[in-house]
Every structure is written in structure tokens, then in C-alpha cells.
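Protocol step 4 of 5: obtain the predicted structure for the target chain.
Materials: sequence only (see below). No template structures provided, no constraints applied. The aim of this step is simply to have a reference model before the mutagenesis design in step 5. Sequence pasted as it appears in the construct record:
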Amino acid sequence: MRIHHFPVFMVILAVVLFPVSTVRADIYRCVQANGHISYQQIRCHSEDRPIALKDRRSGWSPLRPGEQALLKQYRKKDAARRRKPMAERTEPAKESRACWARRKKLEAVRAKLRRGYNLGEGESLHRKRDNHREFLRQFCS
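Step 4 output (C-alpha cells):
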């Protein structure tokens, strides 16, 4: 039985060359000559010390007090909105389908009048335009 040493050797070599570590880069706060502040991984001056950062892991964290107050405020507004009667919540009724259709027809006639028409169509188009306007004036807001 022959043992293959090559795969074992490659695994050991990979662990030695690429160790799994939790190396953290230091961060330095630098104030430039013009007053601008920059954050970088390299020291600005020899006496600089790295900034101590809190190690905040990703994932769920509880809400801070200000965020909790804001959430309560939003929930209170939402509850008040839900308590309103349906009649108060509804928006004004949309215009009827007939009015919408007449507006579309009127716009089509106006477009035809602007684009141009044959001599025989003029009187008919003007009559249609006037009829649509009259309908909208009487039955639609």
C-alpha cells in the first residue's frame, strides 16, 4: 500500500505560508497643515499612537435609547392612523371612467387639430372637440 505524501505536504505548506490570523491594521488620525483630518494606516508623525477602536461585530445589536424613542414615536403615529375611520383615510375618489375616456378623446382631437387635417375633416373635428368639452364641463369636475 503506497501513501501519497504530496497532498499532505501541500496542506502543511499552505498552513505555514498562509496562516489564518486575526491581524488588525492600526488606524491613525492625522491633522494636515491645512486643518483637514485624515485617517490612515501609516503614522503621520513618530509620536502618533493608533486610535482605540471598539470591536463591533456585525449582526444584530440592540437599539440605542434615541433609536428606541424614535421607534416608539413611529409606532404611536401608525397606531393613530389605523384608528381613524375608513372614510377619513380614503383619498378623494378618482374621476369616473367615462370622464377619463372623454379626456383622452378630447386630447386626441386636439392633437389631430394641431397636426393638421384634410379640408373635409375640419368641421367634424371642431364639432367633436366642442362636444367633448361640453360633456366634461357638465359631468366632470
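Step 4 remarks: The radius of gyration is 38 Å. Residues 65-83 form the longest helix (19 residues).
Proceed to step 5.
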